[in-house]
Amino acid sequence: MKLSCRTSLIKPSATLAITAKAKKLKSEGKDIVSFGAGEPDFDTPSYIKDAVKDALDKGFTKYTPVSGIDELKNAIHDKFLTDYGVNYENNEILVSCGGKHSLYNLFMVLLNDGDEVIIPSPYWVSYTEIVKLAGGIPVLADTSFNNFKFNLDMLKENFSSKTKAVIINSPSNPTGVLLDEKDIIEIAMFAIEKDILIITDDIYEKIIFDDKNFFNVLMVDKSLKENTVAINAVSKTYSMTGFRIGYAAGHKEIISAMNNLQSQSTSNPTSFAQYGALAALRGNLDFTMKMKEEFEKRRNYMLDFFENEIKTVKPVRPDGAFYIFADISEVFKNSGGSIDSSTKFCSYLLDSYLVAAVPGIEFGNDNYVRLSFATDFNVIKEGLNRIKEAVNIDNLKNLKRG
Ligand code: PMP
Ligand code: GLU
């Protein structure tokens, strides 16, 4: 059977594929250390689980309104009011099956064939694929020469008459880098001037280190509400990745179109999962802050280890999220040409040292590797020791001979 041209345009999510592969090898008894997973390793807080159990017991097991139950939309409304000072009406909010689904709905209703979306690169694996699926063209704005910080010059350089939207993801997956407030404001002003949509993916907003603060342009200019779609989810903030609850807030025409699309695809997000998300958003951030502190300790440990023990792998210092994006070009050199891509490097790590990591090429940068530190401290220590062995110059030379 010949499948649609649309399907052949996209590749599977590498982050999910590598995580699944590591889990499978582990279940087969292999001593795998995985830096693959892009999800918190903490158990979902019990008050959230209890809310789901309660919802099931009360019989909330049926269809809900497509855009989500009112209680949850009210909680999302309150979250935006508290965090950004922005007042979204209920018809300006759509709850979907994860942040990824929110983005999917958005690009599907936004893009015509050939419309361009400017994506700061390196980028999260799904942005490019969803844009392509929707008929759009991902336009990658290289940020690597500016400490991975997207700015107005990069936006201008990549802007064309076909530009429909620009993505802001701060802190970012895969670098964890936070954009400067000034840059975000300048980007937003240019977007307004050119009438392009600002898509702000704030999924890592609560996981920020070094006492730095999250910033969204809506916090300083409420009028941007009409030109911005804010994407978020409970997935990372409350360690609820499997619940699949995300949400979008923006202009009512866009949200209404997304609602129509969702009504013809998934219908409502899972009824009882919505009650879990409601408990999460109505609760406090104690759990999140504890998790964040733990992530920060792990980040510090990893940065120190690279600085002192593995000098040939050079990490970007993440301000937030839970990833280390590290430059491996010196390892390529030391391998005498036998490792010349991030994919080969990750295969070498997995085959020879049983370490799973995501090749940088999947995020648009082949000289890098992504290591998630959303995993146990002991696993991190073991994994780093293995990587140290793997990139040891003698072992790399042997690889060439072998
Ligand atoms: N945006 C970014 C930057 C992400 O890393 C993720 C992680 N999967 C998502 C959106 C979507 O998250 P989810 O669909 O699990 O809510
Ligand atoms: N966002 C996470 C990651 O980058 C989860 C997997 C995915 O949805 O891509 O690993």
Automatic annotation (TrEMBL):
<keyword id="KW-0032">Aminotransferase</keyword>
<dbReference type="InterPro" id="IPR015424">
    <property type="entry name" value="PyrdxlP-dep_Trfase"/>
</dbReference>
<feature type="domain" description="Aminotransferase class I/classII large">
    <location>
        <begin position="30"/>
        <end position="387"/>
    </location>
</feature>
<dbReference type="GO" id="GO:0008483">
    <property type="term" value="F:transaminase activity"/>
</dbReference>
<dbReference type="InterPro" id="IPR004839">
    <property type="entry name" value="Aminotransferase_I/II_large"/>
</dbReference>
<keyword id="KW-0808">Transferase</keyword>
<dbReference type="Pfam" id="PF00155">
    <property type="entry name" value="Aminotran_1_2"/>
</dbReference>
<dbReference type="InterPro" id="IPR015422">
    <property type="entry name" value="PyrdxlP-dep_Trfase_small"/>
</dbReference>
<comment type="similarity">
    <text>Belongs to the class-I pyridoxal-phosphate-dependent aminotransferase family.</text>
</comment>
<dbReference type="GO" id="GO:0030170">
    <property type="term" value="F:pyridoxal phosphate binding"/>
</dbReference>
<protein>
    <submittedName>
        <fullName>Pyridoxal phosphate-dependent aminotransferase</fullName>
    </submittedName>
</protein>
<keyword id="KW-0663">Pyridoxal phosphate</keyword>
<dbReference type="InterPro" id="IPR015421">
    <property type="entry name" value="PyrdxlP-dep_Trfase_major"/>
</dbReference>
<dbReference type="InterPro" id="IPR050596">
    <property type="entry name" value="AspAT/PAT-like"/>
</dbReference>
<dbReference type="GO" id="GO:0006520">
    <property type="term" value="P:amino acid metabolic process"/>
</dbReference>
